[in-house]
């Protein structure tokens, strides 16, 4: 991307070793990784392996002494681990001799129809006053946001969720994300109530996503390499809308140099009041020095640009509709969670599910293996299997409590049978048939090649899931159906208790000592 757009730009591939031979630096800006801070991330905090890379910003600041430092990240920075993230950043800035100010903004203030909340943290040295820059503009929350109209407009929502939230936003989409943990695009869907049946729930394309971030269509096209995974959604989801950068730049140029004794906006009675650095939750806007900190009643709307309609960004006749399978899954999660949604929205979902249902196929060449195989398949449960129930009984008897059918990584659409969230231990109970146990797995005599392919894919998915969890700091315990389940439960208890685990990296453990192998065609 950088090489295509700015071919003469020198790119340092690794921030941990980067150094810059420059003098008189006016601004050092960084949108450091949110992986360890965001709701969907590991929640390791500001010291995590990804978000902790922000330390290299301070390393460079110590050398080059920029007049301004600008950082950007997610609002969870103000809350996670009792606000340890923002506390750490402001303390480091103060040690370097900077005064600081921060503010949460909503990208909709630029006119883009995307509800995207981000923290802008600005620090200045000498007479540079970050509070004057960030708080000089405040337009207040628009009436249509504070008091949404009763009519149902085009609205974005997270079709991949539905258990803990939906993210339904009237007239806009929820935050564009960088894709799921396994690299799949996760663009929000858009509900167009006035469209014909079957076209009321649509998925924006990748160039629509670029436009919704304020980028020209095709901006990330150069990131697609031959034979490589498409990274465009990841780039788009991690981007900062350029209009936000333009606003900050204009404020930096026009804001006066002064030392602010008190700055606030609006009529909040708390404005201008000091607050405790050790508070477990920091306000949406504040400024401070190494002596004191003040909360600010600034809204998330520095300006009020006219909100552009979603139809300016998404051609309702040219994008894919939400599939029947995706709609069915979303409806099921809504029903299970009982989350409140507008009645017309739910009714349209049911209609969409009905009209997108594919016709029943009549397959004359059955490959299921005959009556005996069908009988065996009918006895294969997806959850609450006999070995799983017995293992849970043993674990419960040992005093362990756990989550069932839980997603250890929220962005990964795969659930593990038994999960210990605090210990970061996930238990995968595998049946010998479906998961191709080399000791006890059997094969159908009919259509052997097709069954071999199907079971091989299951084994590959098992391995891929385990590898992803380990990469995110989870220990995966695999329990085979043929294992001694009482013994397996005791081993799981030992791992959860932390004996011999805290000193070891996340890994895959086979409770019965038998790893098994992948099937081969």
UniProtKB/TrEMBL annotation:
It holds the Pfam family Vsr. The keyword Cell membrane does not apply. It comes from the Bacteria. Its EC number is 2.1.1.37. The active site is at 34. CDD domains: Vsr. Residues 359-383 are annotated as: Disordered. Keywords: DNA damage, DNA repair, Endonuclease, Hydrolase, Methyltransferase, Nuclease, Restriction system, S-adenosyl-L-methionine, Transferase. One of its GO terms (biological process) is methylation. PANTHER family: CYTOSINE-SPECIFIC METHYLTRANSFERASE, DNA (CYTOSINE-5)-METHYLTRANSFERASE CMT3. Belongs to the class I-like SAM-binding methyltransferase superfamily. C5-methyltransferase family. NCBIfam families: vsr. This is DNA (cytosine-5-)-methyltransferase. It comes from Mycobacteroides chelonae (Mycobacterium chelonae).
């Amino acid at each position: 991307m950088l090489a295509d757009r700015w071919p003469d730009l020198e790119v340092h591939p690794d921030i941990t070793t980067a150094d810059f031979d420059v003098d008189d630096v006016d601004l050092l800006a960084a949108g450091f990784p949110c992986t360890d801070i965001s709701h969907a991330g590991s929640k390791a905090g500001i010291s995590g392996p990804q978000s902790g890379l922000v330390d290299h910003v301070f390393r460079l600041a110590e050398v080059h002494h920029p007049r301004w430092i600008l950082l950007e990240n997610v609002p969870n920075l103000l809350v996670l681990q009792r606000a340890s993230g923002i506390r750490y950043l402001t303390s480091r800035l103060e040690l370097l001799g900077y005064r600081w100010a921060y503010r949460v903004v909503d990208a909709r203030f630029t006119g883009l129809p995307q509800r995207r909340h981000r923290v802008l943290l600005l620090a200045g040295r000498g007479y540079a006053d970050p509070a004057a820059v960030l708080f000089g503009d405040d337009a207040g929350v628009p009436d249509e946001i504070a008091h949404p109209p009763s009519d149902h407009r085009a609205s974005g929502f997270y079709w991949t969720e539905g258990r803990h939230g939906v993210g339904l936003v009237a007239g806009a989409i929820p935050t564009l994300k960088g894709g799921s943990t396994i690299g799949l695009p996760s663009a929000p869907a858009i509900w167009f109530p006035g469209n014909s049946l079957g076209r009321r729930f649509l998925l924006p394309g990748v160039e629509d996503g670029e436009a919704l971030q304020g980028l020209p269509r095709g901006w990330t096209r150069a990131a697609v390499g031959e034979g490589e995974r498409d990274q465009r959604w990841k780039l788009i989801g991690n981007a900062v809308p350029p209009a936000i950068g333009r606003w900050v730049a204009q404020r930096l140029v026009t804001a006066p140099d002064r030392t602010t004794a008190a700055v606030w906006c609006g009529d909040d009675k708390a404005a201008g009041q000091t607050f405790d650095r050790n508070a477990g939750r920091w306000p949406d806007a504040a400024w401070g020095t190494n002596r004191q900190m003040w909360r600010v009643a600034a809204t998330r709307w520095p300006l009020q640009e006219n909100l552009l309609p979603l139809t300016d960004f998404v051609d309702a006749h040219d994008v894919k509709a939400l599939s029947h399978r995706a709609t069915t899954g979303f409806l099921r999660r809504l029903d299970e969670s009982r989350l409140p949604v507008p009645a017309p929205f739910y009714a349209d979902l049911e209609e969409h599910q009905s009209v997108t249902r594919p016709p029943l196929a009549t397959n004359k060449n059955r490959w299921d293996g005959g009556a005996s195989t069908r009988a065996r398949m009918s006895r294969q449960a997806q959850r609450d299997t006999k070995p799983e129930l017995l293992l849970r009984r043993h674990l419960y008897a040992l005093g362990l409590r756990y989550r069932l059918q839980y997603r250890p990584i929220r962005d990964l659409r795969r659930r593990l049978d038994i999960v210990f969230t605090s210990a970061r231990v996930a238990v995968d109970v595998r049946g010998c048939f479906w998961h191709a146990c080399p000791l006890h797995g059997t094969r159908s005599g009919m259509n052997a090649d097709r069954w071999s392919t199907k079971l091989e894919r299951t084994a590959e998915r098992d391995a891929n899931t385990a590898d992803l969890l380990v990469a995110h700091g989870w220990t995966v315990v695999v329990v085979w159906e043929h294992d001694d389940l009482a013994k397996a439960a005791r081993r799981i208890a030992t791992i959860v208790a932390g004996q011999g685990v805290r000193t070891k990296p996340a890994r895959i453990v086979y409770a019965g000592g038998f790893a098994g192998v992948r099937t081969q065609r």
